[in-house]
Structures are given as C-alpha cells and as structure tokens.
Specification:
- Helix content is 30%, strand content 33%.
- A hairpin with a 2-residue loop joins strand 20 and strand 21.
- Helix 4 packs antiparallel against helix 5.
- With 464 residues, the chain is of the alpha+beta class.
Length: 464
C-alpha cells in the first residue's frame, strides 16, 4: 500500500511539470523577445552623433605631438588661388652697365665682382689715347689764352678810345672777338664734359694742364630707387652701394668710347613675375583692378636664424599685368613691386653686401578670389576627416573633446569653419595634430583605458 502511494505522488509531480512547460511554450513568441531587447536598449543612454569620450593624454604625449591650442575668433577669410612666381630684375632700375666715356687703355681696376661701390666711387682708370680728346683740350687752352690776350688789349685801348685818338669801332671789334672766343671755349668745355671729364679736369685743361688719364666712377644714385626699403636689421644705417656683378675688360686692354666695362646692380627694388594660366586670367585681372592684397610665400625661413631679417614685405599688390601671352607656355605674366632688404659686412677691408631676395628666387602667390565673413579659421592640421565628417579637438585642461564641424573651404594651409554653434569663438582648439589625437581617441576607446603612449612621430601604442 505504501509503495502504490509513492507512485501516485511521483506521477502527480511529473504531470504538474509537464503542464507548466506546455503553458510556457504557448505563451512564448519572437515578438516578446524583441520587446525585451528593445527595453534594454531604451534603458541605455543614447550616443549623440560625433560625440566620443574625451581624449586624455599626458604632458609627455602633448610634448611629443607638439600640440598648440589657441582660442577661436570670428574673422574674415579670403579664398585664394596659388600661382607660381619668380623674382626678376626691375628693368631700368636693378641692373646697369658702366661704359667707357673715352677711347683709352685700362690702367687700373678698383672694384671686382662681389665688391660694393657707393655712388661716385672710382671703378676704373683709363689712359687717354684719343687724338680728338687731346685736340679738344688743346683748342680749349688756345681759346682761353686768346681771351686773356684780347681782354688785356681791350683794357689798354679803352683809355685811348675815350680820348678820341682811337676810333671806337676798334674797341667794338675786340669785344666781338672776345664773345666769339667765349663761345668757342664753351663748346670745347661741353665736348670734354660729354666725354666724361670732370669739371676740375676741364678747368685744368683750360689752364694748360692736359688730362692724360680719366677715372670712371660709379653712377649717381637713381632717384627712383631712393625711396626703396631701408637697410635690414643688422645692417645699421649703412648707405647704399652698388654691387659689381661682372667685369667685361681686363687690365691693359684698350677700350673704345661707349664700350661696357662692367655690370653693377641695384637690387633694392625688384619685381615678382607671376604666371597666370588661362582659367586664372580673369581672377588676376579682377585682383589688379580692385587693388586686392596678394599674399606672397617666399619659402624663406628667415635664413634659418631667428631675427636676422625683419618681417618680409607682404602682402603686396599687382603693379601691372602684361599685354602679351607667352606663346610657349600659354600663361599671362603679371608683376608685383618688391622692396628688397640688404645687409653689409666687411671682409679683408672690402665692403660686401647680402641681399634678402635675389633674381631667380621662386615664390608662391596667393591671389584673392572670394571673401568669407564671420567664419572660424584654423590651420589645416587642426581638422581630421572621416568620410563626410570633419572634426576638431577642443582642449579642456589635459583632455581634448572631439567636435564635429562644417568645413566651408580648405586649402594647403587653412581650413575655414562655419560659425554654426558646433564650436564657438573663445573655444581653445588644438591647432595641429588632429589626426594623431583621433588615433589616440580610438586607441583609448578600444582598450578602455587612457594609458596609451604617443611617440614623437604620432604613432600610438598601449602602455603596459
């Protein structure tokens, strides 16, 4: 009887379990499972687009990346096009030749290539071999002596003529003779002056001291170049000097009147020749017409020494646009006036010059095209892009928050951001290293720890 009771109780328990399982199966459905997961999803906080956990890096990592932060400011920005340019001589101003005023033999050379010569300084000494020059000096001397003789005669006969013993017509003839001789003297003086003889040498020839040698001096300072840029810092107030570029004669060589003896340079005023392609001609002409400022990239790191030169002369304006298109390149030239800077130094007792800009130097010209107003401008390295998204990093102490931004324009140097509230004026934004900060952010998100190490080249590794 006891055994049958136990079997009855066991059978009842099994029946109860089976009934519970059947009820659970009838009430289960995929919809109920999805509802449960959906409830879990709503229980987690949503992530805003572009929002990530702040990037935390150590002071050493910031030093490795060379991070610099600056506050954003509302400003205006000109969209530009970059065109190539080259520094060239300014025709009629930069270079000039020194010519021989007479025919003679070079007996002395005072300045050589690389030397400097202030205006009026002696450059060459030439011994005269011109017969016409000697003849002019002789005739000048003879005419001057005849004037003296005629004046003495006039003085002796003036008293006699007043007493009536001599007709006055005789006095008039002597006076007319003196006038004719004065005209002859002036003519020979002009002839000798045109041949390059200085005033003191002409006066000496009139008194019988004939000139056998002539000194060729550096020309006087041109008036157009007198308003050029002042000497660079370090050059002091040193006066201007020409620089001898090339010699075309040798010592003892016979030269002819008008022959070029040397080339000297005055590089205080130069030109920048830009090249505009066909699609850019209209933009260049509009910039010239409106006198818009042209930004010039000289590619000059201040001669690799901080403070050796003052700030370069920029921005500039277009001086003029060429009237002819280059048949070979199909480009149109335009020119910007450039005031040069120079320094002087002395070596072995000889003064020499250093120019900041030299003909042949290559530059980049940024011609303005379109103006953006009330925008935020950052360096190109401050923006990182992931597909259509663009981000900058805002600094907050030792952390950096990634912020999505809208890029209106970007070029090789700058990125122009819209002032749409994603970032605001006054925010401190990392000016460089945005790509490296983005890698640090991803590394920290994947490891779940801010302990990452940043190398000087920007590579990121997890610290152990």
């Amino acid at each position: 009887m006891a055994r049958s009771t136990r079997w009855i109780l066991a059978g009842g328990a099994v029946a109860s379990l089976a009934a519970g399982a059947a009820w659970g199966y009838r009430n289960w459905s995929p919809a109920s499972t999805e509802a449960a997961h959906e409830g879990d999803a709503h229980s987690r906080p949503a992530t805003a687009p572009g929002h990530t956990a702040p990037v935390r890096i150590s002071p050493q990592a910031r030093a490795n990346l060379g991070l610099k932060s600056k506050p954003l400011e509302l400003t205006a920005f000109w969209r530009t096009i970059e065109l190539p340019g080259v520094i060239v001589d300014r025709p009629g101003v930069s270079d000039r030749g020194v010519v021989s005023p007479v025919t003679g033999i070079v007996t002395n050379i005072e300045a050589f290539p690389g030397d400097t010569a202030p205006p009026g300084a002696p450059l060459f000494t030439i011994r005269l071999v011109s017969e016409s020059l000697h003849a002019s000096q002789l005739e000048l001397f003879k005419a001057s002596r005849e004037i003296e003789i005629a004046q003495d005669q006039l003085q002796r006969l003036s008293d006699v003529a007043e007493s009536g013993a001599l007709p006055k017509s005789r006095i008039i003839d002597i006076e007319n003779q003196i006038k004719r001789l004065n005209v002859t003297v002036e003519a020979y003086q002009q002839d000798l002056e045109s041949r390059g003889l200085p005033t003191d040498a002409i006066e000496a020839a009139a008194s019988g001291e004939f000139v056998t040698e002539i000194v060729v001096n550096a020309p006087h300072e041109p008036k157009r170049a007198a308003a050029a840029a002042p000497a660079a810092s370090g050059g002091g107030d040193a006066p201007f000097s020409y620089e001898v570029q090339a010699l075309h004669i040798e010592l003892g060589e016979q030269v002819q009147s008008g022959q070029v003896l040397a080339d000297i340079a005055d590089h205080r005023t130069l030109l920048i020749e830009g090249s505009a392609f066909k699609d850019d001609v209209a933009l260049v002409q509009r910039a010239a017409k409106n006198s818009w400022e042209i930004d010039v990239d000289y590619g000059d790191p201040d001669s690799a020494v901080d403070g050796e030169w003052p700030a370069p002369p920029t921005p500039l304006r277009i001086h003029h646009v060429a009237n002819l298109v280059d048949a070979e390149t199909g480009t149109l030239a335009f020119y910007l006036a450039l005031d040069n800077q120079w320094q002087t130094y002395e070596q072995d007792g000889v003064a020499r010059a250093l120019w900041r800009f030299r003909p042949g130097g290559r530059v980049r010209l940024r011609v303005p095209v379109e103006e953006f107003k009330d925008v935020l401008v950052v360096p190109r390295e401050a923006v990182v892009q992931e597909g259509p998204e663009a981000f900058v990093f805002r600094q907050n102490g030792d952390t950096f928050d990634r912020r999505p931004v809208r890029v209106l324009h970007e070029d090789r140097l700058f990125a122009v951001l819209a002032n749409d509230g994603s970032v605001r004026p006054g925010y401190y934004i990392a000016q460089n290293g945005a790509a490296s900060l983005n890698r640090v952010m991803k590394a920290q998100a994947s490891t779940g720890t801010p302990n990452v190490h940043v190398h000087a080249d920007g590579t990121v590794h997890e610290a152990h």
